[in-house]
Amino acid sequence: MTKFPYLRQDFLASIVVFLVAVPLCVGVAVASGVPAELGLITGIVGGLVTGLMRGSSLQVSGPAAGLTVLVFEAVSEFGVATLGVIVLMAGLLQLAMGFFGIGRWFRAISVSVVEGMLCGIGLVIIAGQIYAAAGLKAPESGLGKIAGLPGAFADAFGSTSALASLAIGAGTIAVIVLWKKLPKAVQSVPGALAAVVLATVASLAFSLPVTTVKVEGLLGVIQPPGAGAFGELATPAIWGTIIAFALIASAESLFSAAAVDRLHDGPRTEYNKEMIAQGAGNVVSGLLGALPMTAVIVRSSANVNAGAKTKASRVLHGVWLLLFAAAMPWALALIPIPALAGILVHAGFKLIPFRELAALWRSHKGEALILVVTAVSIVVVNMFEGVLIGLALSVAKTAWEASHVKLEIVDKGAGPIQVCLSGNATFLRLPKILDSLESLPQDRPVELNLSEVHHLDHAFRTALENWAERHSAVGTEPVRVTAA
């Protein structure tokens, strides 16, 4: 026991994480448009491959709700057979970023962009899974999903099977929400698992006309990418998806790591090594034709709260997933799809940062605007371009705030007009400064003091030189400049 001093704590934690992971792995796979077993395979790889590697000792990896929108789009465009290649190449990109020390730079990404990304993903997940809960086909675009909801509800209320399906989905959400109000002893069983079990029992007991998960068997769904799938790499469009997978999965994993570090007093995350671990996991997932993985905050926080002390808990959770997938695939075929939709609707709501947005609006309205614009862009356009829009806005805002420049003009009525510039003089503030300089009397000499300017970019310097030349062209004394 001295070799494994925390074996008991890690063993018990691994059981809790396994029970949390099963419905989420299956639900994410179904929502992504792939066989349910592929979600379990990614969870297994997250435990047995990523779980064994260094990086963040207590966070748990697997298929994430945050990637369902991107995966569904990729499967719709390129097919399930090509998914493995996309995940494999994304994993190789993550490995490269980890080896070149780029992992820690993800900590520099604006929190507003990440929160906006999760908010946008959450909105699309909620809208899409409402259709799944009603047994209806969802429109392809995020905006179409939201706009079509009134019509979907109208269709559902005219169908007995759709109403039964919606009732299962709504009941699942209700159980998850109310489960937290039950005694602690009852809560030792995760709410999502309890909700799925109760939904399954109800659908069987009342013979409800709801669709259930299709089961193909663990070995039947493993499809290593073939030559045709690798041939898709010649298509430029696929590389945008690969880059999106790599960047979004990495950002989600490393922000999760930062959150998990705040939950425990153990070793801190080594960001570049965690990036390598995530990359290795995605390479293996890709070779098996499975879903992409990220570190998942729901499973990770469950792991910490259950008392895990070392990485053994997450490795063991992978073992339990493997045993379940191999020995009890029949259990998956009993699960109603609207129950999984209910789990993901609840997960989608948890991705929307209601409290953070309200706090941001009170203290940093610009950051709150970036969050909202990022979320709306993801819904209206798509995931990758929405994140790029958010990042561009964040960079623009930072550049604007960093370019503080102050202009002081002292005119004593006689002698030269004294002009003093201070701060960071960049092209972003140039129009306003030029307006002030060009309004100075043309028949008066000017002394321009730049000694307090910390940074003067090329555009600003050129504009000042041109203004000084114009001001002196009408016979006035040349503008005297005190250089920075």
Structure at a glance:
The chain has 484 residues and is α/β, with parallel strands linked by helices. Helices cover 64% and strands 7% of the residues.
| Strand segment tally | 6
Terminal Cα span? 68 Å
Q: Which regions are unreliable across 5 or more consecutive residues at pLDDT < 50?
A: none
What is the number of independent domains? 2
Q: Give the overall pLDDT as a whole number.
A: 86
Overall form: elongated
- Largest sheet descriptor: 4 strands, mixed
| Percentage beta strand | 5-15%
Give the helix level as a range of percent.
Answer: 55-70%
State the strand order across the main sheet: 3-4-5-6
- Secondary-structure-derived class: alpha/beta
Number of helices, counting only DSSP H or I runs of 4 residues or more: 23
SSE pattern, N- to C-terminal: HHEHHHHHHHHHHHHEHHHHHHHEEHEHE
Rg over C-alpha atoms, rounded to the nearest angstrom: 28 Å
Give an overview of the whole structure.
- The structure is a single chain.
- The protein has 484 residues and is of the alpha/beta class.
- It folds into 2 domains: 7-357, no CATH class; 405-482, 2-Layer Sandwich (Transcription Regulator spoIIAA).
- Helix content is 64%, strand content 7%.
- Helix 3 packs antiparallel against helix 13.
